[in-house]
Fold these 2 entries.
Entry 1:
Amino acid sequence: MKRSALVTGASRGIGRACAIALAREGWPVCVNYLERRDAAESLVSSLRSQGFAAMAFQADVADRKAVARMVRAVSETMGPVELLVNNAGISHQGLFQDMDDELWNRILAVNLTGARNAVQAVLPHMLSEKRGAVINVSSIWGLRGGSCEVAYSCSKAAVIGLTRSLALELAPSGIRVNCVAPGCIETDMVRALGEETRAMLVEETPLGRLGTPEDIANVIAFLASDRAAFVTGQVVSADGGFIV
Ligand code: NAD
């Protein structure tokens, strides 16, 4: 049975770890990237050298047509997409008062509409086969408020709404939709906040460390697998106890 997994924003960070974890679970994986072609291709080469099927594809998830093209290319090359991980995301720190239309719209376009675009592109196949799984990457800031991260927080809360509503709508078609809400994870996104904020986040995390991309990839790999066959509509936090 030919089938494949698509991970958006997979050239680095959580998406990269997720692509590796899914390849190890036997999924042919498409590594979607926005700009870092070198990183995406190097990941694909490394996966192939380990005997896994993988391909890279450039697409801005906010661009519905580009996403549709990517899903067609993946289906033709590796098999229809039966697992979608909506991981691509951007964040921004700043006062709500200072946020202009462009920034607000871009954050929602990538974090929320990007997931919508990808789900709509993979759904025709999933609906016709009555199987498939979607895993959205939200955030602890979608579960609780994030000061100076209002747009990001809104977009991640919306991803939880998308997950729950879609899970109900698609359950009769045998398609599972779940969500992971990572805590503070050691990636470029958190590194960009600076050393002082990083130390504060470690302090605030009961397990006393930042998470690794693999900590999140492991949860995603579980949700993607048949071991989670009866799990849908759930938000699984992997946050070292940040929200308890
Ligand atoms: P990251 O910045 O390293 O990775 C984000 C990835 O998304 C990058 O590869 C980037 O190129 C890609 N991307 C951004 N815009 C895109 C677009 N328009 N189209 C396609 N790809 C695009 O950060 P990360 O921590 O690995 O983030 C992965 C996901 O996890 C994001 O959705 C983020 O919001 C979420 N998250 C991260 C943390 C954390 O602490 N790092 C916490 C909670 C949630």
Entry 2:
Amino acid sequence: MHFNILTIFPEMFPGTLSGGVVGRALEKGIWSFDAINIRDFAINNYGSVDDEQFGGGVGMVMRPDVLGNALDSVKNRGKIIYFSPRGPTLNQHMVREFANDKNATYTLLCGRYEGIDQRVIEEYDIMELSIGDYILSGGEIAAQVFVDSVVRVMDNVLGGGVEATANESFEIGGLEWPLYTRPSAWRGRNVPEVLLSGHHGNIERWRKQQSDEITKQRRPDLIKEK
Ligand code: SAH
């Protein structure tokens, strides 16, 4: 999988994506990226990529001519995604869909300032995608969230194979059950007896029941979705 990342802060990549399983996948060549500096396509020697908003108001907007030239510099763009609070919110189902084709290319456009000129979105048939109902100062963190979540579910990224991701919150149609590891007794708190019993049927039932309970309390909306 390949990502073309358009940003005015190319030094922010791979950033957090260099660590852990996703970082190892980068080293193994399961995914690759090019960070393209939008400033290289600036309209003047000052490196301007933004301008005042038509119609007035505070805040600058990224110029379509600059972004158009930056996008045109990418030979194989694949699907173009602009991170924006206006898009549908990324969820695990969408993550799976994006991860489906291991040879896919995605071009990720990281906005800054107030965002980008609307005409760019139309001209390149760009998909808008949000990572949640809050406002970031730029799309770079959103791009890292996207790459991390998508690469993570690709084959040979997590140890433990299919099972490692199949048991996760959202994948099981709800939230995960409580997790425990050694020591079995800690500060007077004991691990639930059933988990030490070795009885797989009982353990599975307990986990299912815990998961249902927690989901019902915290995220009833996930149950309705099922
Ligand atoms: N004026 C915009 C917010 C601009 S924030 C609005 O009101 O909708 C600056 C940039 O940060 C955006 O262009 C976008 O690329 C990124 N960004 C901010 N919040 C985001 C979110 N929730 N999801 C994805 N990207 C976001």
